[in-house]
Structures are given as structure tokens and as C-alpha cells.
Amino acid sequence: MGGGGAPSAKFANPGDSIRGRIVAPPQAYQERDYVKDKPGGGDLKFYPSGDPIMSVYVDVHTDLHDPSIEDDDGTRRVYIEGRYLKADVRNAVRAAGAAGLEVGGTLELTFTHREDPDDKRSRKFWQAKYIPAGNAALMAPEVGGQPTAPATPPPSAPAAQPASAPVPTAPAAAPAQQPADLARQLFAVGLDDAQVAGATGLDAAVVAALRTAA
């Protein structure tokens, strides 16, 4: 964790929550050991098998504003790290009927409580909710009298019209992903090979090779 980019979302106390629209494709990274005096500077983490322990982060646009951050536009980086948080996000994505986190989707995370309230290193419990990009667009308020939601259906109705092609391109950022990129994203969220193969259409052998190379 750490490094450049958007400020990190903070979940210091039970009840801390963040909600926002995903503004960039999720990025996979290898987890590091926690070092109190050197955040993000610990040793890289590996499974006993020698495979790297991978996680994913997403940048979401929120209504937060920190006066101490110059030109704070509300974007926060959410690190989906640790098997419990990964599982909660994965379950939220599944419940939404989505293949994975995508640009335009809305992610909401709440740190509800700790296993041992007196031990700040004990397991955190989370509540996760995900709204896929298409549904998030339908729920977005109209701006300047322009109906955002109806703008998408017209292009899909006249399928033979070439001029309608550019219109779906904006909300459909996720489908533009290559299957291999989507597979890596799903690995990071915690899906197994069979689930990734089903979501991407890739052969099981290709999925296994991508996981080994990740």
C-alpha cells in the first residue's frame, strides 16, 4: 500500500464508511507486511507455496473533502486487502450479478466492528455493497435537465445503426477490457479458476497459466 495517486480511504474506527463511483479500472498489487513506522514499506507477502499474495485497489469518487489536501476532489483509493474483505467484496459483486468491479460501478464499504474491540489488530468485520455500472447510471440524478439513463437505451434498439456505436462506449468501459485483464482483476478479488473461466470465457488452461504468471 501507499505510494502516489489518490489519498487512501481510512477505516480507523467501527462505523467508518466510504461510498463512491469507481473512476479507474481496478489495479492489482502484491501485499506487503505491515510495518508501523514505514507504511507500505514492509516485505512482500507470499503464500507458503511461493505464490505472491495479490490484492486489488480501486479509486472511487466520493463527496469527502479534506481541507489539508490541496485540490482534494473527493477521490479516494480503496485497498481491498485481506481474505475477509476480499470475500465480502466478492460476495457483494456476486449479489449484484456482476462479473467484477468496473469503472462506473458504485462501491460502498463500511467497517462495522472488530472481533475483539480491545485489540486493534484483531479481525475487522465489513459490510460491502456494489452497484454495477449500468444500474448506477440509471440511479444517477439528471443534470441540467438531461436524462442520463434514457441516453443509453436508444442506441441498443436500432442495432443496425452504425452511428449509435460511440454512445454505448462511454458507459461500457468494463466490457472493453481484454479477457486476460479481466481475469487478473477477478484473481485479485478472490475468485477461483473455475469462476474466472466462466466469467471471461477463457479456457481453464489459459486461466491457470495467467494465475501462475500474475
Explain what you see.
- Residues 158-179 have a biased composition (Low complexity).
- The chain has 214 residues and is an alpha+beta fold.
- It is built from seven helices and six strands.
- Strands 1, 2, 3, 4, 5 and 6 form a six-stranded antiparallel beta sheet that branches.
- The longest helix is centred in the middle third of the chain and has 13 residues, at 83-95.
- The radius of gyration is 19 Å and the shape is globular.
- 24% of the residues are buried.
- The model is unreliable at 143-154 and 162-176 (pLDDT under 50).
Oligomerization:
single chain
* Number of strand elements: 6
Q: How many domains, as an integer?
A: 2
User: How helical, in percent, are the residues?
Assistant: 25-40%
Averaging pLDDT over every residue, what do you get?
Answer: 79
Report Rg: 19 Å
Order of helices and strands: EEEEHEEHHHHHH
Shape: globular
Number of H/I helices: 7
Structural class: alpha+beta
End-to-end Cα distance: 18 Å
Largest sheet: 6 strands, antiparallel
Percentage beta strand: 15-25%
Low-confidence stretches: 143-154, 162-176
Topology (elements, then pairings):
Layout: E1 17-22, E2 27-30, E3 54-61, E4 75-80, H1 83-95, E5 106-114, E6 124-131, H2 133-139, H3 153-156, H4 166-169, H5 179-189, H6 193-200, H7 204-213
Helix pairs in contact: 5-6, 6-7
